Structures are given as structure tokens and as C-alpha cells.
Predict the structure of DHA2 family efflux MFS transporter permease subunit.
Amino acid sequence: MPNAPGHGGKVLFSVLLGTFTVSLNNSALNLAVADLMATFDARASEVSWVVTLFMISMGMTMPLTGYLADRFGRRRVYLLGLWGFLAGSALGAMAQGLTGILLARGLQGMAAGLMIPLSLSLIFSAYPGDQRGRASGIWGFAVMIAPAIGPSVGGLLLEVSHWRALFLMNMPFALLGLLCGYRYLPADSVNRRRRFDLPGFALITLGMGAVLFSLSRVESLTDLWRIQALLPLTAGVLALCLFVRVEGRARTPLLDLSLFAQRGYRLSVILACLQSIILFGCVLLVPLWMQTALGFGPLTTGLVFLATALAASVCSPVAGHLIDRYPPHWCIGAGLLITLASLLGLATLTEATPVWMIGAWMGLRGLGLGCAYLPATAVGMQNLPEPHIAQASAMNNMARRLVSSLGIVALSIHYDTAVQAALQRGMPYTEASAAALQHAFLALAAIAMGCLPLAWRLGRAMTRHAPAAPGDMPSPDHALTTASARRPQ
């Protein structure tokens, strides 16, 4: 794709519209669970599939993005995903029952699974190497700001209108995204001879779907050992292990696992996975503390998280600019230190802690998030050959979803077990909850501290293999060259 002045900005704007639409819709719909339960006289476990099915279908579609982008072109596949998301939104708005809504959410999830991994690939292809950090920072702003305003927008629409409005609000953004996409996203080369790896697709789909389904049903240690969760979890893990073995022998693998042989990319995925545990761990723990222990309502809890998202969204473009100009480990390391400080602050929460103090610690966490979370992902893919970026992004996303789901289950089990043990010793519930949270936040702080040497190694690896001149793409390392040689041209 050309890197003419102004072209990159048009591509970035086009991709941001689609990314913003997906993130905004998903965060806004979380507020509709109570409304849908009342409207359709359904149980919470049934309505929770509105969120769960989206995540599972997205995780099952992501592995296809590399193959589809290679076979049909990134532009065509991305726009197909946006059309699918638009169709899912229309189907949801017209649904007459919960089944129709679930079908709509499944379609939206599959569409999002095509769009999200391709978004960074399309953006990177429109910018030279020395400007990709800045572009990914602006992309990160949209990724962070949409979930921040989503609950507010969703709450307002539910207050003045109907749950159908949460589906209808996507349509103007999606239509504008399609208009700009067809106008500004250039066509790219395709490989019509690329073969489809059916065994790999079957195994990764079964593995991702089974693991995510099982973990979404687990809230306590008792749940984990029930046959309904243990059987799909075991089957999913076995399928994923078999997938790795099959892909290593495939001539045209669905996912090129040899990308992990590149040190910078491998470190960035590990960093992203560890930070995703911190990110979603706080999403789990802070509402537990504020709503169940202190009795605050959803609005107050939402405002606390708004501080995180706003701070991260403001910081993300600045961090993107910094990683273009300076060695990336300084920015990522500073973000991790800020994250560490915020987690240690959250570990001091007591019943007497004022709400503004909780909001301040969460805002500080947002600054660390903006400096370290998305930049680590972007840095790891900056020097990859362009044809590999879509697969690299998909594998990064899938790894983060699996690891964060495991982390949430571990934290949930710890919290439940610790609180029950403290209550049996006669400790009041608020004190029991505070003690459990303190240990959980300290564990997350330990993870952040463990990320610091990884960030340093990532920065050194990327600096060592940086392109000789701005805009030059680095030559693939030996592992990537070997992998590419297996593919028919």
C-alpha cells in the first residue's frame, strides 16, 4: 500500500470507525442484561449468553483471519466483517425473542473476530516503520475510549428508549466505516493458491470454543470440578495441544506458529498476556469490593472505571509517539512501574477508603495501561514482515483471551475461598473481603514486577533488529524464512 502523505490518516480513520463501533457496542450491551431478563422473563444464566456467545464466537473466528487475508485480501475480509457486524446489529434490533438476540450476538462476534486482528495490519501497512507507534497509539485511543463511554451511552439509551436502541446505534458508525473503507482502503495482493488447513481449523475452533465456554461457567472452585466445566475444559486443552503438533507439520498452517521464534514478537505476546491478567483482574475485583462489600451502585462503580479508561485513552497516543522516538522499553517500563504503584495502592483499600481515592488509584492504573499494554503489542509487531502481521495480531488476541480467562477464574476462586475461610473464622464480611482483595492485588503487583525484565528484554530485542532506515521492512529471520518457504507461491 502506498505511504503517500495523508493516505495513512485516511486508512487509520476508516479502520478506527469499525474498531470503535465494535468496542462501543460490546461495552454498552453489558448494561442490558437486567432489561433483557425482565423483557423475556429469562434467568440471568440465559441472558449472560448475550456476552458469552460474542466472546466465544469471536475467539473461534480469529484463527481464520490470516488465511482469509492471504487468500482474499485484507481489505475485502475486513469489509466483510464490517458488513457482518452491521447485519448482526440489524438482526438484533429486529429480534422478537432471546434466541434472535443470541443469533445476532453470535454473528457480531464472528464479524469482530475478522475485524480486530486485521485492524492493526491495515494500519501498519499504511505507515512507514518509524510512524507505526504513533498510529497504533491513536488506534489505542479509540480502543480505550469506546469502552469508557459505552456504559454511559448504553445507560442513557436504556433510560430514554429501548434495548433495541443499543443495536441500532451501531448502524451509523458501521455504514460510515463501510463508506470510508471502500473509498480509502486500497486493495492488496492475494494468494489464490493458498490451501485451507482444515485439521488445524477444526482443532483450534474446538479448543478455543471449549476452553472459553468452560471458563465462562466457572465462578468458584466447586464449579471448576463439575463435569459440565471439567469435560469441555479438558477436551479444549487437548485440542489446543494437538493443534500445536499438527501445525508444526502442516505445509500451509492455518496459524504460522514459527512467528514465536522471533524473540521480539514472542516477548510482546508474553507481556500482553501477563498484562491482560492485571487488566481483567481489576475489572473483576474492584466491582466486587465496591458493590458487594461497600454497597455502592453501578453508576459509582462505572465512574471509577471511567477514570481508568479516560486516563489510558489520553496516554495512549503519547505513548505511541514515544515508542517511535525512543527505545520502547523506557515507555513500557515506566507504564509497568505506574501500574505497580496503582496496584499497591489498591491493595491498601479499607472500608474507610473514600471513593475519590479509589478513583485516583484507578486513574493511575489507566496511565500505566496506556503506556505499557497496547504499546507492548504494537512494538512486537512493528518489525514483522507485512504478510505476517494479520496472523501475528490474531495469535496475540487469542493468547490474551485464553490467559486472561484463566486469570479471572484463578482470582475468582481465590476470592471466594479466602472470603469463605475468613467468615468461618468469625471475621465480618467487609474485613474478609478486604483481606482477600489485598492478597489478590498484591499478586497482580507481583505479575507487574515480573513484567519489568521482560519489557527490558523486549526493548533490547527490538532495538537490535530495528530497520536500517525509516520505512524499511526488516528481512524475516531464519524461522520466518523457513516457514514462508513451505507455502506455495
